[in-house]
Amino acid sequence: MKNIHLSIIIPAYNEEKRLPQSLDKILLFLRQKKYSWEIIVVDDGSTDHTKDVGKNRENVQKISYTPNKGKGNAVRTGMLAAHGAYRLMCDADLSTPIEELDNFFQHITEAEVLIGSRKLKGSNLKIKQPWHRRMLGEIFNLVVKTLVVKGIHDTQCGFKMFSKTAAEKIFATQYIPRFGWDVEALFLARKYGFRIKELAVVWINDTESKVNPLKEAWRMFKEVIQIRINALRGRY
To answer: Which among 51, 104, 168, 180 could disulfide-bond with 64, CB atoms 3.0 to 4.6 Å apart, if both were Cys?
Structure first.
């Protein structure tokens, strides 16, 4: 396969309604670029028609499997299937607009892992999360900073770009299946000596999010503890 400059990986679970519009926005953005690109949509065991979204669109590859295994598994699958020199993971709802990618490419010589942050000065939260979600996020970030990854303000923003070398090294050993994957990937980036840089982004809360905050928060806490245990046991 010819060299590709950018791969965009979109993990998707029951996204037949939101994904078409997001793909339209991404394709409109990419068609104006001179670099080569591909889009990989990973259908994580959806029970709707997500697997049919994006068919016959240029440079859009679909990977589907069943049953549902979790966002972490979907991201890992897409990252390891990609061909790009740079590999961007973005959420299907585009809470961080695809236009933020231009700023990311301004910083590609500064780090192998670039991550969007809603906590930095200059970030623009056009629609904020409800207070209870923000509170859970703050508690989760405190646990993460204490146990796993220090010095990172926002591990959970769904807009992260990895160099080819970093992606292939990190995701070959990343295995947390669900929403704790971000923390594990950043932990592994640090472990393997890759530089991480946070960049302020525009962010728009999706009021139609399907994530149950209490259920997923508890699961994420357990996954963070598991990362710490794995590290102590020398699993990575």
So the answer is: 51
Question: 200 in helix, strand or coil?
Answer: strand
Residues 228/235, Cβ–Cβ less than 8 Å: no
The residue with tokens 């699961």 is 219
Total residues found in the chain within this entry: 236
Q: Report how far apart, in Å, the C-alpha atoms of 153 and of each of 26, 52, 82, 121 are.
A: 27, 37, 28, 11
Counting the structural domains of the chain, the total is 1
CATH of the domain at 187: 3.90.550.10
Q: pLDDT digits over 36-90, tens only?
A: 999 999 999 999 999 999 888 889 999 999 999 999 999 999 999 999 999 999 9
Q: Is the per-residue pLDDT at 211 higher than 90? A: no
Residues spanned by the domain of 126: 4-232
Q: What is the sign of the dihedral through the CA atoms of 41, 25, 167 and 229?
A: negative
| CA pair distance 71, 180, nearest whole angstrom | 9
* CA distance linking residue 204 with residue 152, whole number of Å: 21
